[in-house]
Amino acid sequence: MNLNTLSSRICRIEEEIPKLANTLSAMKITDTGTYGRNYEELSLDAAFRAERLACSLRSLIYAANLVPKPVLMETAAKAHGIRISHTNRRVEITLPGLIPKRTKRVNTTFLTDPLYASLETYTRENALPRFTDCVVCFSHIYDEKLSVRRVRDYDNLECKQILDTVASFLMADDSGLHCDAYHTTEFGDRDCTILTLMERPEFPAWLKQQENRSKTISDF
Predict the structure, then answer these.
(1) Which of 53, 59, 26 is nearest to 42 (CA)?
(2) Backbone angles phi, psi at 33, to 5 degrees
(3) In this structure, are residues 89 and 199 in contact, taking their beta carbons and an 8 Å threshold?
(4) Which helix (H) or strand (E) covers residue 199, if one does?
């Protein structure tokens, strides 16, 4: 990459930073009780700007050939707190809390790229099941110290991009003929999303375990 191109890209990133700072400043002075809707819009705007900045910086690193993409994505996955575990019958993936669907066209690779890299590494080192007729369970965990007003409708969360990424590694087909989707909401010590994949006969036992968890939304 020549110096002029590099400088131009860095300038565009610099221009976005004050906009993010202004949004954060507005959040600090917004009364969440009275102006909850405004605060929600500001917080989403801040999140999307931060994601765009992260993706732009990654792109800059790729273009400059500074760090191989797999190495950078491994670091990003750790920053996201992405974790994968499995047994013979289930695969569990821990992700950050999913945010609402975008109302305008923006980059969704902020999370899917690190997730893809994590799955690629994990499947290379572990013999994972490849599910045919399965159930995919999204457990949406919300920080119990924050307002319950943050809980969102399931169809308003960005689950499709996550499922598409996971399906390429763990599922024969993610159509409705071969895959059922289940969502549940819980409260915990932090925001996160736990994605669990299993064959259909395993689902009743998993559901029973969920019912026995000590902290669910029904407790609030």
Answers:
(1) 26
(2) -70, -45
(3) yes
(4) strand 192-199
Averages of pLDDT over each 10 residues, the chain, 220 residues: 79 92 94 85 89 88 80 91 91 89 63 93 91 93 82 75 92 85 90 94 90 53
Q: State how far the Cα of 88 lies from the Cα of 128, in Å rounded to an integer.
A: 8
H/E stretch holding 52 reads helix 36-64
* pLDDT for res 104: 52
Count CB neighbours of 91 within 10 A: 26
The pLDDT value recorded for residue 40 is 84
CA distances from 6 to 53, 56, 66, 178, 201 (A): 15, 12, 13, 47, 54
User: Looking at residue 220, what is its pLDDT?
Assistant: 38
Q: Identity (one letter) of the amino acid at 172?
A: A
Residue 72 to residues 6, 55, 61, 77, 117, Cα–Cα distance (Å): 19, 12, 9, 9, 9
What distances in angstroms separate CA 147 from CA 36, 46, 48, 100, 187, one per listed residue? 11, 19, 21, 17, 11
